[in-house]
Amino acid sequence: MNIQAKTQLAFTEPYAFVGGKWISAVDGNTIDVTNPATGETVGTVPALGFDETNQAIEAAKSALSHWGKLAASERAAVLKKWHALILEHQELLAEILTSEQGKPHSEALSEISYGAKFVEWFAEEGKRTYGDIIPAPRAGQKILVQKQPVGVCALIIPWNFPSALFHRKAAAALAAGCTVVVKPSELTPFSALALARLAQQAGLPDGVLNVVTGMPGEIGRALMASPTVRKLSFTGSTRVGKLLMEQAAKTVKRVSLELGGNAPMIVFDDADIDVAVRACMASKFRNGGQTCVSANRVYVQKEICGPFTKALKAEVEALRVGPGTDRSVTIGPLINDAAVAKVARHVRDACAKGATIVAGGKAHHLGGRFYEPTILANAQASMELAHEETFGPVVPIFEFSTEAEAIEAANDTDYGLASYIFTNDLSRALRVSDALDTGIVGVNEGAISNEVAPFGGFKESGIGKEGSYQGIEEYLDTKYIMITLKTDKG
Ligand code: SIN
Q1: Which of 204, 289, 338, 406 gives 20 to 30 Å between its CA and that of 303?
Q2: What residue owns the CA closest to ligand 1's atom 3?
Q3: Is 354 left (phi over 0), alpha (psi -120 to 50) or beta?
Q4: What are the tens digits of pLDDT across the range 72-81?
């Protein structure tokens, strides 16, 4: 499918969105976007550079004085129209998403609805950005504390959730009164462009939301060098997050970083095995394992390792691999050849160090970017997959004996985004939740992402929260105003 030709949301020519106008690159350069299932080009977007990005920053700056000063309820009215348009076009948005990202259509639809929830949530949260009145240290003084938008924000969106994470960042920023320059991944820019077109239809004023398409180098350089950009929100690898953090230091930008994960899932011997297996499937195979909160290491207590593995194998073998456009498919391709190579390297390394293949274990017969859903037994701490996020459809099973041993192994990583515990012992659930060094803990639950809870990691998994009332705080500055009142009444 050619996205540009097919949808009324997308375009007959390559356009990015700057200052309310659909623009191409000054030099006319474009980049092709491919369907990971077929390798075919699905469309072309402008390869913008340093100058066009600065144009977008200027547009966002000009729009700020109006948008930032509207009443929160006025901003909410636009966001709610946007929300309604997203739901109205969800089928089409899901098709665009599947074409450029590869995930199965049903997952794409869930992503659209998940993303839309952030728009609705933050439209409402924008009305509740309360300040304080603090008792002053001296009589005749008043101290007011108020929140105000941080200003122009740069939002860098990853390819794994190009729609939901666009919303998780942009809706929070816009509701707070900020204006934004969005840089979608060059692998999946059409979802962002389609959402921008709907935002324009919803009446978002020109320049409030800008989408710059192209390769990250020049665009990133302009965003990070600009003193006008006061805040960066980035989702992506820890390696790039660290570089951006260094660059942000030069103009002391605020940063929110949602970086790599290496989530442990611990299944204790008192757990309900069916619940644990269902959660493992949901966490591990969502988006083919290309999810930061995906269970990367599964620790199973010795006594139930056999039955857990058997039940998981049955579920994994029932997965249907194929192009996401085929409605019967439950697991799509990986995003690119590098992703397939990494999965293959992890499986090879694990097998060389003693892991045994329970299911899958090799490239899928469909070829291209398809990899077999895989279970590896006898996983060990020395294996690459114990320390690096696989970001693919591989479940390594590590056997453990004691609670202390499981906690130590789970925390033995530089990352700290999510973890999962399966037990029917409430004391253990709370004790282990406290002991795990992660920003999110799922107890008897594999689906932990939603709009109402604070999403974000510890350690090298990042800084800051997205979603929840905390998500909007990331886009607000706190100002304190000290007032000394005239005391004489005359
Ligand atoms: C991510 O993988 O970065 C986010 C996934 C989610 O929102 O659940």
Answers
A1: 289
A2: 292
A3: left
A4: 999 999 999 9
pLDDT tens for each residue of 254-312: 999 999 999 999 999 999 999 999 999 999 999 999 999 999 999 999 999 999 999 99
Task: State both tokens at 60.
Answer: 């966002």
Task: Using alpha carbons, select from 462, 466, 467, 458 the residue that is nearest to residue 439.
Answer: 458
Is 258 known to be catalytic?
yes
Top mutation candidate among 188, 291, 438 for ligand 1, by most atoms within 8 Å of CB: 291
Residue nearest to atom 1 of ligand 1 (CA): 292
292 is catalytic: yes
Length of the chain: 490
Mean per-residue pLDDT, 456-484: 98
Give residue 302 CA to ligand 1 midpoint distance, Å: 31
- Contact in structure between 475 and 154 (CB atoms under 8 Å): no
Fill in the amino acid letter for 9: L
